[in-house]
Amino acid sequence: MNSKKIIQEATDYIIKTSQIKHFDIGIILGSGLNDLFFDVEALYIDYKDIPHFKTSTAPGHQGRFMIFNYANKTIIAMQGRLHYYEGYGMDAVILPIEVFKELGISYLITTNAVGAINENYEVGDIVIIKDHINFMGYNPMIGSNNHQGSRFFDMSNAYDLSLRTEAETLANKMNINTRSGVMLGYSGPCFETPAEIRAFRILGADIVGMSTVPEAIASAHANLKMVSFSLITNMASGVLKEKLNENHIIEIAQAKSKDLKNLILQLIWTK
Ligand code: HPA
Questions:
Q1: CB-defined site of ligand 1, < 6 Å
Q2: 214 closest CA partner among 126, 135, 151, 156
């Protein structure tokens, strides 16, 4: 986790640049979903200009904050996130979440692209994450305690049950199919082997991805209410004969994201 000084300097830059002191909702837009709010008027802050921030190098991740009003709320959205595999270390990956906390958000909504381990799932399905298995080989809270809380904290509601239930009810009303699944976080950057995917299935994972898990840990540490949506862009390694390829994953995410986008926009209206 990051020190109070680092979190504060990054937060102060955002407040000074935007002239906004309090935000209602934080959003992380993952692969293929960067354009969710393409038609709103927004202020942009590049990560590279913010003290202590690293910039996104992942394909389909723009590397900037978007600040705007939507549904009468002040929203700060990440167009692109930072991943552990980019090599900056976990502190860089979770700094945005720690900053969200200081900005006063009440809810955190995240999205990502994942591979399906559960063979009943299909490409294009939306999964509301109910729990995770941290298989990234590292925990972002390793280090000294900071002002956001003790290193020892409960993880049983990291994916907030009330927000998940609300999202499911809303999806039903909108005739959008969702699944409730367990995500396994894998460091990447290479995709998994077929043997790893078989092992992860035995462990109880439904989906696999290279993000979100560190963010969920930082969010629980900061006592934020978080809901995470995954879009299945491919069946995981070895399930089908096809080879995995990141360009294909982004294309599928863009092509299949319409329902997920509508669901998130509606969820924001209800908050
Ligand atoms: N594995 C890991 N991350 C992913 C995948 C996958 O199959 N698909 C999209 N992100």
A1: 113-115, 186, 191-192, 208-210, 233-234, 236, 244, 249
A2: 135
Which residues in 197-231 are b (16+ Cβ under 10 Å) and which e? bbebbeeebbbbbbbbbbbbbbbbbbebbbbbbbb
H helix runs in 174-212, sequence order: 194-203
Query: Residue 72 Cα, ligand 1 centroid: separation in angstroms?
Result: 35
pLDDT for 137: 96
Q: Which uninterrupted H or E stretch holds 91?
A: helix 90-102
Quick one: pLDDT at residue 32? 79
How far apart CA 238 and CA 117 sit, in angstroms, is: 9
More confident residue, 47 or 33: 47
Q: Are 204 and 133 in contact (CB under 8 A)?
A: yes
Task: Count CB atoms within 10 A of the CB of residue 24.
Answer: 19
Q: Cα of 117 to ligand 1 centre, how many Å?
A: 10
Read off the pLDDT of residues 234-254 as tens digits, 9 standing for 90 and up.
999 999 988 998 888 888 888
The pick from 86, 114, 126 for probing ligand 1's pocket by mutation, whose C-beta has the most ligand atoms within 8 angstroms, reads 114
- Res 134 pLDDT > 90: yes
Q: Domain limits of the chain?
A: 4-270
Structural domain 4-270, CATH architecture: 3-Layer(aba) Sandwich (3.40)
